[in-house]
Specification:
By secondary structure, the protein is an alpha+beta fold. The chain is 41% helix and 14% strand. Strands 1, 2, 3, 4, 5, 6, 9 and 12 form an eight-stranded mixed β-sheet that branches. The chain has a two-stranded antiparallel sheet with strand order 7-8. A two-stranded antiparallel sheet has the order 10-11. The chain starts with a helix and ends in a 6-residue tail after the last strand.
C-alpha cells in the first residue's frame, strides 16, 4: 500500500472511535436522556430526519409513538454500525470499514410513578424502514445488512470512566415474501463521507432570491464527515450548511454561533461536545432538585429562524393582511457575533438594560443564541414600552411559576422558550401589538402560558398506567391521540 493510501486510511475512525464520538455528544454519563418535542413541534423532527436519506414514512413512525408519552414526543438518537465478514466483537470495534445507520429510540414503558424509564424497560426503535416495539424485536427483525452490529446496549449511550459501553450482535438478512419489494438499504460509509467532504457545496438562486442547497449529498453526510474526520483538511460544510445540520444534535434551529466556532477551531468536535454537556449539566442539576427519580429530558425552545420571527412580530391591522417580508437564506451572523452576551439593547433609540429583569431570567437561558435572536428581533420591530412589558412578563413567569411547572412536568424548560411563547400568544390574541391592550391582558397572557406548558407534559398519570407483559415497567396509551 502506498504512503498516500496509508495516510488516507488513518483518517477513517474505527467503529469504537465513531461510537465514542457519538456518545460524547449524545449522552450524559450513565443517565438515560430524551429529547422532547411537543405536539406542535413536529417541524424540528422533520428537519432532523431531512439530514439523512430515507423514506417519508420515517417521520410518521416516530411521531406515532407519542401515544405512549401523553401526546408529546420523547426520542433519543443513536447509531448502529455494521461490520461485514467479522465475528469477533473486538475486531469489529477496531474495524475501519463500516456501514452506519441512524436509529431513534422512543420512550414507551416507565416506572410506577410514570416519570422515569429504566434500561430494561420496553422502548420502541425506529429505523428508516421499520419500527420495533422492544429491543428483542429490534435485534431479531431489523432489516439492516448482514454482519456484526456494534451499538450501545438498548440504544442508550453510557460513558463509564469516560469510555462508551458497546455491545455486539450478529445480524442476519431477513427473508421477505416474494410479493414485497426489496427494502432500500440506506446507510453511510467512510467512502460516502469522504466523497461528501470533497464535493463543494453548490447553491442556486431561485426566482424569489432565496439561495437553496442543491442536494448532491445529504447535509447529514457533510456534517458527520466534519465531526468524524477532524484531521481532514477538507471542510465538508460551510457555515449555513453546518448550522442547519446541527439541529440533529442540538434540538434547536439557531446554531450559527456554534457552527462558526466549530469551523474556526481545529477540534470542532470538542466545541459541540462542550456545548451539549453544558446543556445536560443544567438539566441534570434541575433533575436533582425535583422530587423522585426522573429522566433527563431536553426540550426544544421552538424559536424559529429570524425570517419567521420578523413576520411574527409584525402588527396586523384589522382587515389587512400582514406584509410578507422578503425571505433571506439565513440570519445575518454579525447580529450575534460581536459579543458573547447581550447586556444592553437599543430599542428605537432607548437603551434598555437587561440586568433589571433579574438573575433568575438569565440563569435559565439554555440557548443564548436563541435568546439573543428573540431580543434583537423584538428590538427591531417593537416599541420600547412593549419590549419592556414582554420582558417583565417573562421575568414574572420565570420567577413565580417556573419552579412550580418544573415540579409538575419533571423536565427543564428555558427562559427563551417562555419568552417565545409569550410572543406567540400576543401575536395570536392581540395581533395589533397595542401596548394598553397587552398590559390590561397581562394576567390572561400568563394564564395561557401556564396552560401551554402544563399541556406539554410527556409523563403519564400513575393511575392510568398498565403493567407491561414484556418488561418490568408500565405504560399508558394516550386516550386523545
Amino acid at each position: 500500500m502506498s504512503a498516500s493510501k496509508d495516510k488516507d486510511t488513518t483518517l477513517v475512525p474505527t467503529v469504537r472511535e465513531v461510537q465514542q464520538k457519538f456518545a460524547e455528544i449524545l449522552s450524559h454519563g450513565e443517565d438515560i436522556t430524551w429529547d422532547l418535542l411537543t405536539a406542535n413541534q413536529e417541524e424540528v423532527l422533520k428537519r432532523k430526519l431531512s439530514l439523512f436519506k430515507g423514506n417519508c414514512n420515517w417521520f410518521y413512525r416516530i411521531w406515532n409513538q407519542r401515544k405512549y408519552t401523553n401526546g408529546q414526543s420523547l426520542t433519543s438518537l443513536f447509531f448502529v454500525l455494521i461490520v461485514d465478514n467479522v465475528s469477533n466483537p473486538q475486531l469489529a470495534e477496531e474495524s475501519r470499514s463500516w456501514h452506519l445507520y441512524p436509529v431513534f429510540r422512543c420512550r414507551r414503558c416507565v416506572d410506577k410513578s410514570g416519570q422515569a424509564s429504566g434500561i430494561d424497560c420496553c422502548m420502541a426503535y425506529v429505523t428508516q424502514n421499520s419500527s420495533y416495539g422492544n429491543w428483542n424485536e429490534f435485534l431479531l427483525l431489523s432489516d439492516f445488512r448482514e454482519g456484526l452490529m456494534v451499538t450501545p446496549y438498548r440504544g442508550v449511550y453510557k460513558l463509564i470512566d469516560g469510555q462508551v459501553e458497546l455491545k455486539s450482535y450478529p445480524i442476519t438478512e431477513q427473508p421477505r415474501p416474494g410479493f414485497l419489494p426489496k427494502i432500500k438499504d440506506c446507510f453511510i460509509t467512510p467512502e460516502s463521507l469522504s466523497i461528501a467532504s470533497k464535493t463543494p457545496v453548490i447553491r442556486k438562486k431561485s426566482e424569489n432570491a432565496v439561495f437553496q442547497l442543491v442536494p448532491e449529498f445529504c447535509a447529514g453526510e457533510r456534517m458527520l464527515s466534519l465531526l468524524l474526520n477532524p484531521d481532514s483538511v477538507q471542510k465538508s460544510c460551510d457555515l449555513i450548511d453546518l448550522s442547519d445540520s446541527l439541529v440533529l444534535f442540538t434540538q434547536t434551529f439557531n446554531n450559527f454561533r456554534l457552527a462558526k466556532s466549530m469551523l474556526e477551531e481545529a477540534n470542532c468536535l470538542n466545541i459541540l461536545v462542550n456545548q451539549e454537556r453544558s446543556v445536560f449539566d443544567k438539566i441534570s442539576e434541575e433533575a436533582v432538585r425535583i422530587n423522585g427519580k426522573v429522566d433527563l429530558i431536553r426540550s426544544s425552545n421552538g424559536v424559529p429562524l429570524k425570517s419567521e420571527l420578523d413576520i411574527l412580530l409584525q402588527p396586523i391591522q384589522k382587515k389587512r393582511k400582514p406584509k410578507k417580508l422578503p425571505e433571506t437564506p439565513k440570519e445575518p451572523i454579525d447580529v450575534l457575533e460581536n459579543s458573547p452576551e447581550i447586556n444592553t439593547v437599543k430599542v428605537k433609540g432607548e437603551d434598555i438594560d437587561l440586568a433589571v429583569y433579574g438573575k433568575t431570567l438569565r440563569d435559565h437561558i439554555v440557548s443564548l443564541e436563541s435568546f439573543e435572536l428573540l431580543i434583537t428581533s423584538m428590538a427591531e420591530h417593537l416599541e420600547p414600552e412593549i419590549f419592556k412589558l414582554i420582558l417583565q412578563l417573562t421575568q414574572t413567569f420565570v420567577e413565580n411559576t417556573r419552579e412550580e411547572m418544573s415540579q409538575l412536568l419533571k423536565y427543564y424548560f428555558s427562559t427563551e422558550s417562555v419568552l417565545y411563547q409569550i410572543i406567540c400568544s400576543i401575536r395570536k390574541h392581540y395581533p395589533s401589538w397595542n401596548f394598553n391592550e397587552i398590559k390590561e391582558q397581562s394576567s390572561e397572557i400568563l394564564r395561557r402560558l401556564r396552560y401551554y406548558f402544563a399541556s406539554s407534559d410527556p409523563n403519564s398519570r400513575s393511575e392510568f398506567l398498565k403493567k407491561c407483559e414484556k418488561c418490568t415497567g408500565y405504560y399508558d396509551l394516550y386516550n386523545k391521540y
